[in-house]
Amino acid sequence: MIFINILLVLLVLLIFLFLSDLYIKNSPKSKLNLLPINYKIKKKDGLNELIIDLKITNKSKNKETMVSNINFELDFFKSKGNEYCQNLKYQEDIYIYDKNKLRNLNNYWPTTIIKSNSELLIRIIYKFSDNNFRKKINYIWLKVFWENYGHFGISNKKDCFLVNLEGQKCNPKDVFEIPLNNKYKAFAIKTDLLGCFDSPINTVVEYCRGIVQKNDILTIGESPLAIMQNRYISPQNLEYSFFSKALCYFFHPTSSLATACGMQLLINRIGVTRITFALFVGFLFKLVGIKGMFYRITGSESSLIDDISGTVKPYDKSIVMGPRNADLFCEKVSKYLNIDVAVVDVNDLGGVKVLASSNKKVNKILKRNLKSNPAGNGDQKTPIVLIREKSK
């Protein structure tokens, strides 16, 4: 009888979790996304102009959504240590494309309807009167605060984009040779601070052109690749639930899943049911001394989430997800450079994960030779590392 009661309790719990997943997945929410297009820098009428193009897309098949307000803010950073700078004076002009014509909004955003399966193009022009401003700063962190209004209620969102004032030149700053062992050495390639305006494939190819040699193995960290793919999110955009606040308590305080927002991001990806099941199974296996079952069941989505403070600034206020289509990225870069390519997740404790590679035969070589983490931490800005066999 007790066994039957336990089964009934588990069945009720399973049904509850399943219904909760259905509610989370199908509850009304905004399907607007703000995406980067391009930027350029030019000089006009004695002023330095920065022109940034963005677009808002509505992925809903039948619901229109309004953007009731939108505001832009700029943070300024120097290259050395990503040092924050005081605000510089600038003029801001906001434009939208209305019937294929550029219309100046005169710094007042009218409530704008984004119809289903449509998009709105936005242009922001910043004019700087200080002729030396490009000597003072290297990067601009564009912060966009915008309101979504519709059948879901009102949702306040925040999106951020990095603008490199040096443009997308992809010239390697420095190449550091790092001895690994008697057979291999590494070359860490220093880059600019990377952002979602950078094309992942073109960026890596251009930084490595003229440096790579035959039989090199090129590696790039999973977080820099994810950032170039715009795979990061502000915690403000996550509507965390009771489940995320409860489930995060089961993780070590330093885990990226130990916060409600980090856990909610995983819930949105794989659901409460799978996470709860993985926790239960993981607990049972821990009793017999087997660890890591939770991450095996939940997959790479759980282990590749980097919560805030886990990445180089200014991304330290965003949650970074794992990269998308890493295998395809490796294959394409490999064809361009004619060497093996891999996406890796390496930490300072000697942990090495090869997430994807163009040639599985190199995985063992990478796991042996990347334990010392030759890429260093994010502040060193050496996300690309070449592994090269020493000449005999």
Short description:
With 392 residues, this protein is an alpha+beta fold. It is 27% helix and 33% strand.
Structure notes:
The protein has helices spanning 2-26, 133-136, 200-208, 222-228, 242-247, 260-270, 272-287, 293-298, 300-303, 326-337, 363-369, and strands at 32-44, 47-58, 65-77, 84-85, 90-98, 101-104, 112-114, 118-128, 139-150, 153-164, 175-179, 184-189, 217-221, 232-233, 319-320, 340-346, 352-357, 384-389. The chain is of the alpha+beta class. The radius of gyration is 24 Å and the shape is flat. Helix content is 27%, strand content 33%. The protein contains eleven helices and 18 strands. The model has no long low-confidence stretch (mean pLDDT 89). Helix 3 runs parallel beside helix 10 and helix 6 (260-270) packs across helix 7 (272-287). The protein has three domains: 2-26 and 232-319, no CATH class; 32-164, Immunoglobulin-like (Sandwich); 175-230 and 322-389, 60s Ribosomal Protein L30, Chain: A (2-Layer Sandwich), CATH 3.30.1330.
Overall, the morphology is flat
List segments where confidence is low: pLDDT < 50 over at least 5 consecutive residues. none
* SSE class: alpha+beta
Strand order of the largest sheet: 11-12-18-13-16-17
The topology string of helices and strands comes to HEEEEEEEEHEEEEHEHEHHHHHEHEEHE
The CATH architecture classification of the largest domain is Sandwich
- Proportion of residues in helical segments: 25-40%
Number of helices: 11
Content of β-strand: 25-35%
How many separate structural domains? 3
* CATH topology descriptor of the largest domain: Immunoglobulin-like
How many E strands?
18
- Rg, nearest Å: 24 Å
How would you state the average pLDDT, rounded? 89
The biggest beta sheet reads: 6 strands, mixed
Distance between the termini: 73 Å
**In CATH, what is the class of the largest domain?**
Mainly Beta
